[in-house]
Design a protein that fits this description.
The structure is a homodimer. By secondary structure, chain A is α+β, with helices and mostly antiparallel strands. In chain A, 52% of the residues lie in helices and 13% in strands. In chain A, helix 1 packs across helix 5. The termini of chain A are far apart. Chains A and B meet through helix 1, helix 2 and helix 5 of A and helix 1, helix 2 and helix 5 of B. The first copy, chain A, binds a DNA duplex through helix 3 and helix 4.
DNA sequence: CAAGTACTTTGATAACTGTAAAACTACTTG
DNA sequence: CAAGTAGTTTTACAGTTATCAAAGTACTTG
């Protein structure tokens, strides 16, 4: 299967737009932030509870995030574990970030 | 006065989602990158030529970017000068960036 | 095996989006 | 003032999206 964004190659404009579009929804910003705060994996049910959406709706957002290459899921039994693809996120964010970005 | 994102206050989830949504289109990624590369202002016609869209279409994308607080425009005579709101961009990008983000 | 759990998919719908084309405003130049 | 320029708005439309509700799948537990 063809790989998704893997931080080794610079993502194209279209790929980056897809990533930003995927983050461009309040529910998905919450999902990303929740995943970002995890050091270990987290299950779909836990995410749905934390974010406050139904599992069905979470599953829809899941597909958007997976398509954009931001999230990977691993299924074990009937529970699915979500992982944030930190490299893909950093690649997109970094492509538009200022050289010295945390200045204040 | 400052009704838009101004990097002093942490943008809400909704505000940041709006910014990411605004960047979530290939044409607008190109516009942002073009603006990012400018040290001075750039006119609408120049942007349209560089990005390869009509002025009418550019104007549509303009409204999305202005609504999100990413772009400011100043009109002088019949030409409008665009400026990137670097603080708003950095605030959104930074809110999801990893602590040590430029590692490789 | 029946019931429950954890998703996943499908269908429906209302709202939104990107694009093109055309009309419009307002400034500038001859 | 007529023509051209720069930008804006409007109209139209096909395609997409977020959400809900309901049905489906597959694993687990009693």
């Amino acid at each position: 299967m063809s790989n998704r964004l893997n931080a080794e190659i610079a993502p194209s404009v279209e790929e980056r737009a897809l990533v930003f579009k995927a983050i461009g929804d309040p529910t998905r910003v919450r999902i990303i932030e929740l995943l970002r705060a995890q050091s270990l994996e987290i299950t779909g049910t836990e995410i749905a509870e934390n974010v406050g959406v139904s599992l069905a709706l979470l599953c829809h957002h899941s597909s958007v995030l997976v398509e954009a290459g931001l999230v990977t899921k691993r299924k074990e039994g009937q529970t699915s574990y979500w992982m944030l693809n930190r490299d893909a996120l950093a690649a997109a964010l970094g492509s538009l970030a200022e050289p010295g970005s945390s200045a204040h």
